[in-house]
Write a structure and sequence with these properties.
Rossmann fold, 494 residues, 3 domains
C-alpha cells in the first residue's frame, strides 16, 4: 500500500501542487516553501469527496508512535486472513491500531466501539440512506487526518442497525441470538389494532429496552455482522457487558468459518481487540497477535506456537494460577517427609502463593507423576507450568535427572539433595530439640534409617517431619540447598 499523498496550495503559482507524501510536505515546511497556514488536502479524502474542505498544514494530526511492523505491512499480511485477534495491556495501542486499520478498509469496513449502553425503544421506520456506511467512512477519514482526540462512540445505534437489515438478515439475527441466549426475539407493534402503530423489538414478551445492556450489545455486534454492506468488521473490546458464557459462544460463532459463511457470506474479515482470553482464536493460534508498547514504539508479535498461546492465555487471566483455582507452582517429591517439610517451608517463606506438593510415592514413580501432569495440562514444553514445575530427588536417585529433562522439566528446576534425605535439611536447632541434645551431637545421628533412633528417642521419619514442620517459623534459617529451591519458586511465581 502506497503512503498517503497530500496536495497543497502553491501560493507562488496560485494553484494546487502535485501530490507529495507527508514527509515531503514536512520538508517543504522546513525549507520555508509552505507555511503553517498553507491549505492542504489529503488525496484519499479528495477522491472520496470532491467537495471536501482543505485544512491548514498545522492542523494535520500526527500519530506520534511507530508501529513494527508498519500498519501498511501488517494490513497487507492480514489481507487474506479472515480473523485477526489483538491482545495486550491497557495503553498498548490496540484501539489505535484498529483505527489505523479501519482507515484502510474503505466504505466496506465498520469499526465498533463497544459501549455497554446501546439504547433501543420504538423503532424509527424511516428509510435510512443506503450508503450510510460509506458516509460514516467519509466522515471518519476527514477527521482521521485532523482530529486531536479519541472518539469511542458508535456511529450507528442499535435501532438503526435493526431497521437497516433486510427481512432475511433480521430473521437470521433473531435465530442466532436465540441460539446464543435462549430468548425468543421478534418485531411487534405497540398497538396491533392500528396498522400504522410503531414497532419495537420483543424479547420473551417484553420490550428489548428492558433487556440487559449485554443483550443489546450482542444484538449490536451480530446485527452489524449480518448487514451485507459490511465486509470488514473491526470490534474494540467486545467483552464489555457480555458474560463469560456469551463471550465464548459469540467467539465460536465469529470464528467458525462454515457458520460465518452461512449467516454472513459478505463478511470477509474480522479484527478484534480484546482483554478477554475467551475471544482468542483457539483453532488457529497464529490468528492471535500480542500488542506491546515501549515509549513511542508499538510492536505487534504473532503467536506462533501452542506454548506461546498458553502463555498468552495465562497472562490475560492475570498471571496468577490462584485466580483460576490452581497452584502457582507444582513440586514433585519422593516421599511424605519431603512433601510435609517443603510445603511448610514454602508456606512460611512464600505466604502469598499456593505451592502444590505431589508425592511420587516411592522410587521410580516420579516419571509416572509427570505423565499424569502431561495428561492434565498437556505437554510440559507448551504448558503455562513449564517454568513452574519442580522435581526434588535424593542423591541416590540422581541418575534419573537426564530422563526428567527429556520429559520437559527445566534443568534449573531439577533439585538433587547433596545427602540422602530431607532430614539433613531440617533446621538443626529444631532437630536438637526433638532429640534433646546439643546441635553439635547431631553429627552422630543416622538420619537415613526409618525409624530414626538417637539419644534414647525413637521416631519415624513421617512423625519427625510433622513435628519439625509444626515448630518451624520464619525465624529459623533455611539450609542453603532448600533456600535456593525456595528462591527459585518465588522467582517464577512473581
Amino acid at each position: 500500500m502506497t503512503p498517503d499523498k497530500w496536495i497543497y496550495v502553491d501560493e507562488a503559482k496560485r494553484e494546487w501542487s502535485l501530490p507529495v507524501t507527508l514527509a515531503e510536505l514536512d520538508s517543504l515546511r522546513a525549507a520555508g516553501k509552505i507555511r503553517d497556514s498553507t491549505e492542504v488536502i489529503n488525496t484519499r479524502v479528495l477522491q472520496r469527496n470532491r467537495r471536501a474542505n482543505p485544512i491548514r498544514y498545522s492542523a494535520i494530526a500526527r500519530l506520534g508512535v511507530e508501529f513494527t511492523p508498519t500498519i501498511q505491512a501488517f494490513h497487507a499480511d492480514r489481507d487474506d486472513k479472515s480473523v485477526t485477534v489483538l491482545s495486550g495491556p491497557n495503553n498498548c495501542g490496540k484501539t489505535l491500531l484498529l483505527k489505523q486499520l479501519f482507515s484502510f478498509t474503505d466504505e466496506g469496513g465498520y469499526l465498533i466501539s463497544c459501549s455497554r449502553f446501546s439504547h433501543v425503544d420504538v423503532l424509527n421506520t424511516r428509510q435510512l440512506d443506503e450508503n450510510i456506511f460509506g458516509g460514516y467512512y467519509d466522515t471518519y477519514i476527514q477527521g482521521f487526518y485532523t482530529t486531536q482526540q479519541n472518539s469511542e462512540e458508535n456511529h450507528l445505534k442499535l435501532e438503526q442497525i435493526i431497521t437497516g437489515l433486510k427481512q432475511s438478515q433480521l430473521t437470521a439475527l433473531f435465530s442466532v441470538c436465540k441460539d446464543l441466549l435462549g430468548n425468543e426475539f421478534s418485531i411487534k407493534q405497540i398497538d396491533p389494532e392500528r396498522p400504522f402503530s410503531s414497532f419495537y423489538v420483543d424479547m420473551d414478551g417484553q420490550n428489548l429496552k428492558y433487556g440487559s445492556s449485554g443483550t443489546r450489545l450482542l444484538l449490536t455486534l451480530l446485527g452489524t455482522a449480518l448487514d451485507e454492506r459490511v465486509s470488514i468488521l473491526l470490534i474494540d473490546e467486545p467483552e464489555l457487558g457480555l458474560s463469560p458464557r456469551i463471550q465464548t459462544v459469540l467467539a465460536e460463532f465469529l470464528y467458525d468459518e462454515a457458520r460465518r459463511k452461512t449467516f454472513c457470506p459478505h463478511l470477509r474479515q474480522i479484527f478484534i481487540a480484546t482483554h478477554s482470553h475467551l475471544f482468542l482464536d483457539r483453532k488457529v493460534v497464529s490468528n492471535n497477535w500480542i500488542v506491546s508498547k515501549t515509549g513511542s514504539a508499538i510492536a505487534l508479535r504473532q503467536v506462533k506456537s501452542l506454548g506461546d498461546f498458553h502463555q498468552l492465555q495465562f497472562n490475560m487471566l492475570g498471571n496468577e494460577f490462584e485466580s483460576i483455582f490452581l497452584p502457582s507452582a507444582i513440586v514433585i517429591v519422593e516421599g511424605d517427609s519431603d512433601a510435609t517439610f517443603i510445603a511448610k517451608a514454602t508456606k512460611v517463606h512464600i505466604p502469598d502463593r499456593k505451592v502444590a506438593m505431589v508425592r511420587a510415592g516411592g522410587d521410580g514413580e516420579v516419571q509416572n507423576k509427570l505423565n499424569v501432569l502431561k495428561e492434565t495440562f498437556g505437554a510440559i514444553e507448551t504448558s503455562p507450568y513449564r517454568d513452574r514445575l519442580f522435581v526434588v530427588l535424593d542423591r541416590r536417585h540422581s541418575s534419573r535427572v537426564s530422563r526428567l529433562h527429556g520429559q520437559g522439566v527445566p534443568r534449573d528446576n531439577t533439585v538433587v539433595w547433596s545427602q540422602n534425605g530431607i532430614e539433613y535439611l531440617y533446621p538443626s536447632v529444631l532437630v536438637a530439640e526433638v532429640f534433646r541434645c546439643d546441635v553439635a551431637e547431631l553429627a552422630k545421628c543416622k538420619f537415613e534409617s526409618d525409624p530414626i533412633e538417637f539419644n534414647g528417642i525413637k521416631m519415624s521419619k513421617r512423625e519427625m517431619a510433622q513435628v519439625i514442620s509444626d515448630r518451624m517459623t520464619e525465624s529459623h534459617p533455611l539450609h542453603s540447598e532448600l533456600g535456593a529451591l525456595i528462591d527459585r519458586i518465588r522467582a517464577v511465581c512473581k
